Amino acid sequence: MIALSGQIHRMTGILTAAALCMTVMTCTGCSDSDNPTFALAHADGPRAAIYTDRGCWEESVRASEKMLQWAGFNVTRIGAEFINDRGLAGFDLLLVPGGDMYRYAQSISAAGKEKIRSFINDGGGYIGICGGGYFAASRVVWHGQPLSMVPLGLYDGDAIGPIAEVTPNSDYGMCRIAVTKPDHPVNAGLARSISVLYYWGPAFVAEPGNDITVLGTYDACDQPAMMAFDYGAGRVFIIGSHPEIEEDSDRDGVTFGDNLDDEGSDWPLLKNAAEWCLDK
After folding, report:
1. For the purposes of burial, counting CB atoms within 10 Å of the CB of 107, is it exposed (0-12), middle (13-18) or buried (19 or more)?
2. Sign for the pseudo-dihedral over CA of 113, 57, 22, 98
3. Could you tell me if 135 and 247 are in contact, meaning their C-beta atoms sit under 8 angstroms apart?
4. What is the CATH number of the domain that holds 51?
5. 241 within a domain of the structure (yes/no)
6. Which residue range is the domain that position 151 belongs to?
7. For residues 242 and 221, what is the distance between their CA atoms, to the nearest angstrom?
8. Are 192 and 184 in contact (CB under 8 A)?
9. Euclidean distance between CA atoms 120 and 8, whole angstroms
10. Is residue 166 packed enough to be buried (19+ CB in 10 Å), middle (13-18) or exposed (0-12)?
């Protein structure tokens, strides 16, 4: 879910023009987490950090937090200042939620981005959902135009969105993703076609030579919707849609999308991804 606040991004409230998934981008129905909290969840289990700062879609933050707690993670919310100053030592996984990747790139300094890359390279895991997926690319293309921003560059390639074919009559809606690697651990137990919330997310287009596994493609355009790859001693999973949002349940702690039908929970996909990132 992206929204370039200021110019393209509308994320606060319901379809408000203001500030991936981002002037800045904000997604319709999204709200900024301008004052990040540092809330610790489980006392035991692997430690996951959720990025929550300017541009983050609060619904994605909250639903991701609930999902990771359900999966047995000890969850801490952190902001850009935390990453810039302290890095990610002591964590096992970093999840960057949906929101405004342009703001992410502004708020997290060059040193902070290097700390994230070093964290993954040294064995940490990275999950990027929508805006967090855009942020993982080396280049971001928004409405056909390259954005003037410096993302993480975890792979050599583009994150391109939004994709009009996926939800042609709305900013968001359910989309179908064809599972292309059913034998991959991230896709364990999934149907060959899954229904997931789409909200201005990217397709991921890697340059030739990247050692990347495309795990699923959008039915609407046959472009990569989710990918997994090694980064040094660590692992990365990125997805352009929103599997953290539970349209059929209130256990995600949000009401966004409750009028939609996701044909079952997508949390097992994210749990698989988190465990794969930790090489469990």
Report:
1. buried
2. positive
3. no
4. 3.40.50.880
5. yes
6. 47-277
7. 17
8. no
9. 31
10. buried
Task: Report pLDDT digits (tens) over 129-147.
Answer: 999 999 999 999 999 999 9
The single residue listed with the structure tokens 């993670």 is: 73
Lookup: tokens for 259: 């009028």
Q: Is residue 224 part of a domain?
A: yes
* Mean pLDDT on 158-162: 98
* Predicted TM-score of the model (pTM): 0.87
Q: Which residues, other chains included, contact 253 with Cβ-Cβ below 8 Å and sequence gap of 6+? A: 62, 63, 65, 66
**Both structure tokens of 167:** 């939800």
Q: Which two tokens stand for residue 12?
A: 């606060």
Residue 14 resides in a domain = no
Question: For 186-237, what is each residue's pLDDT tens digit?
Answer: 999 999 999 999 999 999 999 998 999 999 999 999 999 999 999 999 999 9
Q: How many CB atoms lie within 10 A of CB 152?
A: 25
Q: How many domains, the chain? A: 1
Residue 95 within a domain: yes
CA distance 172 to 200: 7
